[in-house]
Write a structure and sequence with these properties.
- The structure is a single chain.
- It is built from nine helices and twelve strands.
- The protein has a five-stranded antiparallel beta sheet with strand order 4-5-3-7-6. A five-stranded antiparallel beta sheet has the order 9-10-8-12-11.
- It folds into two domains: 159 residues, RRM (RNA recognition motif) domain (Alpha-Beta Plaits), CATH 3.30.70; 104 residues, Alpha-Beta Plaits, CATH 3.30.70.
- With 302 residues, it is of the alpha+beta class.
Length: 302
């Protein structure tokens, strides 16, 4: 009996639940410093590392990531720009988010001299993440749910949701793709540029919007051209347009949509990550910049 008592006495005490709370508070403070002040923690556990050639993967700690997600959901608002609002320039979207901060200052919720602006991250053409430095602003925007703003003579619709993870954003984009239908003409030949919009409308369906043909009007270029078509035209999608000139030339215009394979490495259409030759060249130590290959869609923001 005495031996059994000794064994019982040697057992470790149960974990102190207060210790977990202290660690969570430490993590939350590190997250505040990171997302609000831009100070990244250097002593946080980076996760389990595995190396694959010249690439490295980290599987992050489940508990740390759970605390991070909880913090982001408390402090971050996902702003969704609906319908025509998705086409507003990035700077205008940033200004719109700042206007909601100004609104809370003007109504006396915060003192202007002590107020500090939050961080804005553009996630996609119609989604912006806003990390508020005041939970009150984040809660107010999420509770508001949606809003309409007027710029000039146009009215734009916005929607506010708690922070969405990358997986949730992908689902959000998938839902958006179901509601919208766009077509990109890739590597447009100069000879066919003149007819392109009329031919896309005739072959596929009504065009709602034609995106600017160049990202910088001071340096005009002609690469990829994007159209937003009526969503009901989706079944009419075509892979190519052939233009036959009176001289007998046949000009090929390749067409892409949200269902077209697209490489996440070089952002070009018509091949996947595993098939990417440009990405393979870039991973080679002696690869030279400026090589040939298909022009990526990202060169014009697509």
């Amino acid at each position: 009996m005495e031996g059994e008592a000794h064994q019982r006495g040697a057992r470790s005490p149960p974990p102190d639940p207060g210790g977990d709370r202290d660690e969570d508070e430490r993590l939350r403070e590190l997250m505040r410093l990171c997302y609000e002040e831009g100070i990244m923690p250097h002593n946080i556990h980076p996760g389990e590392m595995s190396i694959e050639g010249r690439e490295v993967r980290f599987k992050v700690n489940e508990h740390i990531d759970r605390v991070k997600i909880a913090w982001l959901k408390e402090h971050t608002v996902t702003v969704i720009f609906r319908e025509r609002a998705r086409f507003l320039p990035k700077k205008v979207k940033d200004d719109i988010v700042r206007a909601y901060e100004d609104d809370k200052i003007q109504d006396g919720s915060f003192e202007a001299e002590n107020f500090r602006r939050g961080r804005v991250k553009v996630e996609s053409p119609n989604v912006v993440s806003y990390v508020a430095k005041s939970r009150a602003i984040a809660s107010w925007m999420v509770t508001k749910g949606h809003d309409e703003i007027t710029i000039g003579q146009d009215t734009y619709k916005l929607e506010f949701k708690p922070w969405l993870s990358k997986a949730q954003l992908r689902e959000q984009r998938r839902e958006e793709d179901d509601l919208t239908f766009w077509v990109v003409a890739v590597q447009v030949p100069l000879d066919s540029f003149f007819y392109l919009e009329a031919q896309v409308a005739r072959a596929i369906g009504p065009i709602v919007r034609t995106h600017p043909t160049e990202p910088d009007r001071l340096k005009p270029s002609l690469v990829n051209i994007k159209f937003d078509n009526d969503p009901t035209s989706r079944p009419n999608m075509k892979d190519k347009i052939w233009v036959i000139t009176p001289e007998g030339d046949e000009l090929e215009v390749k067409l892409a949509s949200s269902e077209t394979p697209r490489c996440r490495r070089c952002r070009a259409f018509f091949h996947t990550d595993n098939e990417c030759r440009r990405g393979a060249r870039q991973n080679q130590p002696n690869s030279q910049p400026g090589g040939g290959g298909q022009q990526s869609a990202s060169s014009q923001g697509y």
